[in-house]
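Following the same procedure, backbone shapes were mapped to integers, as reproduced here:
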Amino acid sequence: VNMQTENNSNTPVQVERDQGVGLVRLNRAQQLNALNLEMRQAIATAFLALSGDPAIRVIVVTGGEKVFAAGADLRLLVDKSSQEVAELNLPSYWHPVASCEKPVIAAVNGYCLGAGSELMQMCDIVVADTSARIGQPEAKVGIMPGAGGTQRLARTVGKPIASLMLMCGEALTGERAYQLGLVSELAEGGQALNRALELARKVTFMPPRAMHAIKRALRQGSDLPLQEALQLEQDEFQQLFDTTDQAEGMTAFLEKRKPTFTGN
């Protein structure tokens, strides 16, 4: 895939765009992509830019070949009081990722720990390779996750596995994470990004409004009682019948041709 790189090699995050796919590449390999404030800000900025770019249909986030992200940069936190941590307002940096309307795909190799694992869990689809090691070892440094690492994890893999990871600091292999449903697809060693980009390309041919509606239904519905969630789904389903993409999709199917979706 021939991506256009928009920044130089020492920026903490590189953003690349190619035919509807935006790629966010974490780029502090020397520090194992540890998430300091500069890195967090760069991720937020990249997501805001790609979210606001109408040409981008899907976002892929990845780290390096040996590490996705090994967690928070502890130098940022080691001497802080609870009030000082509150003033850092760490959730604000994650908001552009967690609330992104567009589909987001994570490509994970190697270490994916702490805040790195939380970032992965904010994504919609996760492709990991066999080298992946996914964990929430925050307790080992005297704290606990603070960006979804207890809540999203328990909702995905259940309390027994989440407790094992959180209380014992046990990391999951890519294969185990795949078996447990924390990872969407397991790729061969070194192939996570290629596979994530293949899946992203599929998304670029999908109708954007349906993608947004599916994402909203999944995000909001999972915490609602079933009857309310089904009503939410019904509303989203019906609204898509006011889109030209619905007419195009169904007409193309009946005419045995490929649809061309415009996002209208």
The longest strand covers residues 13-18. The first helix runs from residue 37 to 51. The radius of gyration is 19 Å.
